[in-house]
């Protein structure tokens, strides 16, 4: 095995969560800072928690707060449902019925 193809291995990599040392694992870096780990994730803890590290929720709430949705409020127009499409069998049955009715209405004149 070539020595230069693999990165340096740190068997005592320290994993930090919110400034606290939580784990020691083997990795290619000497230290890791994580935002979520198994001790804080709701799947493993069974507790509901919300992680918003970048403030996206507050930014969204600030942007859409107040009168934002009332700016261009217009009365809703009535939307008519499109007419139901006939399938081939229904259309063929109607055509056959119409043909039979027209044949009954006009007697055949074979004596000409």
Helix and strand succession?
EEEHHH
| Unreliable runs | none
Strands ordered across the widest β-sheet:
2-1-3
**Tally of separate helices:** 3
Share of helix among residues? 25-40%
Cα radius of gyration in angstroms? 37 Å
> Structural class from helices and strands?
alpha+beta
Output mean pLDDT.
77
How would you portray this structure in words?
27% of the residues lie in helices and 18% in strands. By secondary structure, the chain is an alpha+beta fold. The mean pLDDT is 77.
Please provide a brief summary of the model:
This protein has helices spanning 42-45, 56-63, 88-105, and strands at residues 10-17, 20-27, 31-34.
Mind sketching the topology for me?
Elements: E1 10-17, E2 20-27, E3 31-34, H1 42-45, H2 56-63, H3 88-105
Parallel strand pairs: 1-3
Antiparallel strand pairs: 1-2
Key descriptive features of the protein:
alpha+beta; 3 strands; 18% strand; elongated
